[in-house]
Amino acid sequence: MSTTQTRTGMGQVVVIGGGIAGLAAAHRLLDRGARVTVLEASDRLGGKLLPGEIEGVRVDLGAESMLARRPEAVGLAREVGLADRLRPRPPPRRRSGPAAPCAPCPRATSWASRARRPRWPAC
Question: Where do the record's region annotations for Disordered lie (predicted)?
């Protein structure tokens, strides 16, 4: 970010990049009274966050659309009016027991010492 100070307060701030970090920075700076310009190289804002549609259902595309486990991210979503769009992630489904039916125990490899060969439990 580069800043030019003015008599009216924080001044003019240029934010380089319109991804989530740049947009969050611009939002905070606007709250503090700065005049903000966001520069983005692509034809849209959002960075790696990209809206899409799969079989008629709107989805967020990207590695992870928001770290909802971080209170800062949830707070930012609420501040910009997206609180009603937050959805809790369902808990992971876990099962106990073998992943597959018991198979023969693997043989020791040529580099494994016989003294250190693991003892495989009987199924």
Answer: 81-123
